[in-house]
Amino acid sequence: MISKHHKLSLLLGVASFAFLLAWLVPTANATPGPGVAVKPNYPATQIDKGGSFFFKTKPGEPQTITIDLANLANYSQTLTIEPTTAYTSKEGSITYKPGKVPYDKTLKYKMRDLITEKKQKVTIPADRTKTVSFTVNPPKKDYKGVILGALYVKTENRNDNVNANNININNKMALVMPVMIKSQDKKVNPKLTVPSIKPDKSGSQTIINTKLANERPTTIKGLEIKDRIYRKGNPKKTLSKNQLYQLSMAPNSNFQTQNDFGKNALLPGTYHLSLRAHDQNGNHWKIEKDFTVSIKDSVIYNNNNWWWIALLIALLLIILLLLYLIYRQKKKQKELLKDQAK
Prior knowledge:
Strand content: 35-45%
Protein name: DUF916 and DUF3324 domain-containing protein
CATH architecture of the largest domain: Sandwich
Transmembrane segments: 306-327
InterPro entries: Ig-like_fold, WxLIP_HBD, WxLIP_PGBD
Domain WxL Interacting Protein peptidoglycan binding: 38-154
Signal peptide: 1-30
């Protein structure tokens, strides 16, 4: 049985862990479910005892980390623990959910690849605890900044768990225990860039997708973004603007923001994105970038501006007709010159 002292220790650990998730390393929220508590057992190299793993490594020297899993429910539970790599969700927050993730090209080390045990499954009896260990294998050379990931703890469904009305209750839940490592004390400042800007559609609405990337091995927290889009050469007429608050980004990751183009026609030509951003640590970014909308993009992505589409098609037909007439004229001239040479 779990002693009252041990239960209190675990609950305090979970409380500290929740505080850390909100302020130090933003992450996905745990879903409601059965009683499960997760507590880290800090290694000797731990830097900050704030509720998650954050420790210093030596090149190529493995470190073992352990977590205590407590089953606070009145029935046996099976848990799956899987190491993951941190990334930035489409909502603009640091997350650790496993699955196929389009990692940024600047990401050099993935936490999942550095942990020996890829997945562990344990069954814990009611009101008991179990300790699970993982081996972290740091890069063989010193690395800049931090490498961020997590131990993703997920419970299995209990199909036999029914309420008084014989309705199955879904008791599946997930918790994350962040794992962050570094080998140097030198501070690394984040670098925010815009790798690409492309038109798209959301339902029937024309949008502009702007990919934002954090190209450095460090987190961005408290990120605020303001941007506007206008046709190049006409900065006084704003076609779309956007404002986002309280975002966070994982090291070497990216996500997309969307600008609603509203009722404005997406005409072919060159446009300009003017973006301003800053984070809670005083970093500021000013990004100015042109992007081009082709005739094809305009036809595909316009928001029901059918008269513009009809005009574009008409212009395209006129261009094709002119090219055909020029071709015919040149062909006749060649035939005439050939006849004169005989």
